[in-house]
């Protein structure tokens, strides 16, 4: 069969496993990742700065056959993230709201020591990454941890960043931990047109970058401000305040509305901030206001 740019990587490799070697030659080393294999060939080309027509021609030129042992060894193990050396992997267990127990810390320490991890890194997204792992060890480590992977890559909602709020922080004006846990449970890993980051902060200090992520909450003395459209990257964008002084019970229905609007109106790979730049914010604000009522 002839492959097309709108086909998913997993379907291409299922049809002809030998295409994995061709894609690896062009720099696609994430072919075992549960997130990446659900991307289309066009998305993969864009993410890896490859000419999509070159990639398409490459996979269509491959003879039918099985994946070689060498290619299988190079394929990214599920839940693993390829490192700079192109040989080892890191994993990032999901830690909702960044709240961790002594038991979890012991598990992470034990498996890191057992499998000779090169480093343990607390990430900016409130995860704990175990770095420098052999690919053959990654499945065993996940099995021993008994934890879910944090969504650190892919076109989906990433781990939700949450500050201590008024539960612990003397500057906290609103509750964040229970709310952040609920938001994380509701959206973490949800497939969207592009990657999507959420931050929940209990005061105007915005320690979780609420004004520079796709969707952010900031506690005030009167409720919560809701920001949309922030992002970092090569073309950083400051978020817009969408609604102000929301009550806690209003937040989830409004967030549902914002994400629904984004899913229905965004182009592939388009962050919500770029959507707002393209069509304006009033339509989104009106849609969100309706959910508030």
TrEMBL record:
Gene3D superfamilies: SP0561-like, Sulfite Reductase Hemoprotein, domain 1, Sulfite Reductase Hemoprotein,Domain 2. Residues 83-145 form the Nitrite/Sulfite reductase ferredoxin-like domain. Residues 156-290 form the Nitrite/sulphite reductase 4Fe-4S domain. The keyword Metal-binding applies. The keyword Magnesium does not apply. Pfam families: DUF1858 (PF08984), NIR_SIR (PF01077), NIR_SIR_ferr (PF03460). Keywords: 4Fe-4S, Heme, Iron, Iron-sulfur, Metal-binding, Oxidoreductase. Residues 4-55 form the DUF1858 domain. GO terms for molecular function: 4 iron, 4 sulfur cluster binding; heme binding; metal ion binding; oxidoreductase activity. This is Hydrid cluster protein-associated redox disulfide domain protein.
